[in-house]
Amino acid sequence: AVRDGLTNLFNRRYLDETLERELARAKREGYPLSLVMIDIDNFKKINDTEGHLAGDLVLQRVANVVKRCGKAGATTGRFGGEEFIVAHAGTMGSAQALAEALRRQIEREVNVTVSVGVATASQCDREVRKMVARADAALYEAKRSGKNRVCLAA
Predict the structure, then answer these.
(1) Range with the lowest mean pLDDT among 55-64, 87-96, 139-148?
(2) Does residue 82 carry a catalytic annotation?
(3) Burial class (CB in 10 A: 0-12, 13-18, 19+), 151
(4) Mean pLDDT of the residues in the chain
(5) Record: fold of 12-152
(6) Rounded CA gap, 24 and 18, in Å?
(7) Cα 37 from Cα 1, distance rounded (Å)
(8) 30 CA to centre of own chain
(9) Pairing mode, if any, of strands 150-152 and 114-120?
């Protein structure tokens, strides 16, 4: 299966394979590739206080916003737990704008906040896992600095 059963977004295994191909194509064709990593703030609290069915509903609703707001042609998926990823063929600036739009739209529609990390492929990113690690570090910084914000990878 290539789809996550709950959200119907691409699953982690499919993302790992697809993102490698997308990074290779971006390098070959000379366009920038950015990753937008999204994590639902205080998700454990939702599960603990409102139950897992409520948590599942939040995941599905966030997934719908991610699916809809990811630009046409963007690869969107559930990276695991309450983490989602959007692979965006664009610069850090356009990925940051997309990340902010996602953050605002999720808060408006789902009534939860998210923290977001953004990384753009650099010449040293020969592997997606390094790009993901940079996006994840930016996401961690967004969480550490107060949540409900977008941070950019160094």
Answers:
(1) 87-96
(2) yes
(3) buried
(4) 94
(5) Alpha-Beta Plaits (3.30.70)
(6) 10
(7) 22
(8) 23
(9) parallel
Alpha-carbon gap, residue 107 to 4, rounded angstroms: 23
Out of 22, 82, 107, 127, the active site residue is 82
Digit-coded pLDDT (tens) for 68-115: 987 677 899 999 999 999 999 999 999 999 999 999 999 999 999 999
Contact 143, 46 (CB under 8 A): no
What separation in angstroms does the CA of 60 have from each of 30, 54, 106? 35, 10, 11
Per the structure block, which two tokens stand in for 44? Answer: 């454990």
- When pLDDT is averaged across residues 25-35 and rounded to a whole number, the result is 92
The whole-angstrom distance between residue 31's C-alpha and the CA centroid of its chain comes to 20
Distances (CA, A) of 4 to 62, 132, 140, 141: 14, 19, 24, 27
CB of 129 within 8 A of CB of 151? no
Q: How far is it, in rounded angstroms, from Cα 140 to Cα 116?
A: 8
Torsion of CA 55, 60, 61, 66, to 10 degrees: 130
Averaged pLDDT, 131-148: 97
Tokens of 137: 């570090």
